[in-house]
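Journal club side-thread
Mid-discussion, someone asked how the predicted structure for our own chain would compare to the paper's figures. Pasting it here so we can look after the session.
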Amino acid sequence: MKQIKIITFLLFTLIYCFVNCQNETNRGYKVSVGDPLPALEMNMRNGEVWTNKNLENKVV
């Protein structure tokens, strides 16, 4: 009987976490639409270096 209570408690806790972790305003993402791109530099295999200027006006 004690094991059933523990399993039930854990099950309800897990369900509560899934239901309440995300809502309409907070979906768990670290960025939002319109956030500025942080300064970055990417070195490609062919030797090119991409920076923020290369990604300007593109969806990333």
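Post-session note: The first strand starts at residue 41 and ends at 43.
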